[in-house]
TrEMBL record:
Transmembrane feature ranges: 61-83, 90-109, 121-141
The keyword Cell membrane belongs to this UniProt entry's keyword annotation: yes
Family statement: Belongs to the DoxX family.
The name this protein goes by in its record: DoxX family protein
UniProt superkingdom: Bacteria
UniProt organism field: Piscirickettsia litoralis
Membrane topology, from the record: Multi-pass membrane protein
Keywords: Cell membrane, Membrane, Transmembrane, Transmembrane helix
Places the protein is found: Cell membrane
Keyword Membrane: yes
InterPro entries per record: DoxX, DoxX-like_oxidoreductase
Entry-linked PANTHER family: INNER MEMBRANE PROTEIN YPHA-RELATED, OXIDOREDUCTASE CATD-RELATED
Primary site of residence: membrane
Amino acid sequence: MFAKVYTLFRPLLKTFDFLAPLGDLAARLWIANIFFKAALTKIQSWDTTILLFTHEYQVPFLPPVFAAYLGTGAELLLPVLLVLGLGGRVVIFVFFCYNAIAVISYPYLHTPEGLPGLLQHVNWGLLLMLLMFHGSGKISMDHWLAKHFERKLFS
């Protein structure tokens, strides 16, 4: 019975396996786009960004101006690495931590009015967590580098 069910669904499962790298890439592009746009907004109005980090965001252990530079830099660099699939799980883990710190640092997200924003961060965190658990996928620089240099590095 199980063999018949498996045979029936095998083409569908093979299609999912074939499309998985596109799903990985789509998730990476989605997250990268959101955070990169946030960085561009911060750069467009740097004075406002400094004011926000001074009075709104409460980044633990960091002075507000340093947090503004660090946060904006992370939002500029991490999406590029994510899109390229370079740095794999380590970069994705850093991105995941950055997202968590953003949630912790912005008290507004923990109010009834801020709930939609909090839910967005949770969704982004879940996508990052899935990527972190299995890597950037086959459509990535990491995959290409591993394939291209693996024989030379380990032979």
